[in-house]
Amino acid sequence: MLNSSWHTSCKAYAGSRQYRSTSAPVTAISALETIAKRNPALNAFASHITLAEIGSSETSDGPLKEWPIAVKANITTTLPSATSCASRALDTCISPYQATIVDSLEGAGAVVVGKTNMDEFGMGSKNMFSIYGAAINPHTPSSDVR
After folding, report:
1. pTM of the entire structure?
2. CB neighbours of 82 closer than 8 A, spacing ≥ 6?
3. DSSP character for 112?
4. What is residue 47's three-state secondary structure?
5. For 16, which of 77, 125, 130, 131 is 20 to 30 Å away at the CA?
6. Which of 5-19, 29-43, 60-74, 112-126 ranks highest by mean pLDDT?
7. Is the pLDDT of residue 25 over 80?
8. In the chain, how many domains are there?
9. Mean pLDDT for the stretch of residues 42-58
């Protein structure tokens, strides 16, 4: 169960609307532009939605309205990308349902823009063993994490 003070502070932050935009598609487009620009060097995203998919997305009116969200590659979504868990064994697995947390985020108005890279099946701590390749820390891109 979540710590009630943490939950209260998250609700207060979301209610303050410190992160704003004019519409969800504009925010998601901005997020996708950043992903397109930085992901080739960082390899942080395993997959993401396209501009065409943004245009057809509808967001709920809630405390997270218009916020772009990314989930790990092992979280099931109904995005057209596979729920691969960063493994070749599941690289074609398209989930017929979404994880409860994804439903909750979307119900609060968030827009899931993609799935992030991870160690295969989440079995690691350095994000180096993935079918997508190692992810690079943007704060220390030249350091060797091995």
Report:
1. 0.70
2. 47, 90, 91, 92, 93, 94
3. E
4. strand
5. 77
6. 29-43
7. no
8. 1
9. 76
Whether residue 94 is contained in a domain is answered as: yes
CA angle centred on 35, ends 14 and 13, rounded to 5°: 10
Cβ(28)–Cβ(19) below 8 Å: no
- Whether residue 8 lies inside any domain: the answer is no
Fill in the amino acid letter for 47.
S
85 is written with which tokens? 């868990």
Domain that includes residue 102, residue range: 22-122
Residue 18, judged by CB atoms within 10 A of its CB (0-12, 13-18, 19+), counts as: exposed
With tokens 């729920």, the residue in question is 83
Number of helices and strands in the chain (H, E): 4, 3
Distance CA 16, CA 41 (A): 34
Q: How far is CA 104 from CA 34, 59, 98, 111, 134, in A?
A: 25, 12, 10, 11, 30
Band of pLDDT at residue 137, cut at 50, 70 and 90: confident
With respect to residue 130, please indicate whether it lies within any of the assigned structural domains: no
Q: Does residue 91 belong to any structural domain of this protein?
A: yes
pLDDT top residue among 22 and 119: 119
Q: Taking a C-beta distance cutoff of 8 angstroms, is the pair 45, 86 a contact?
A: no
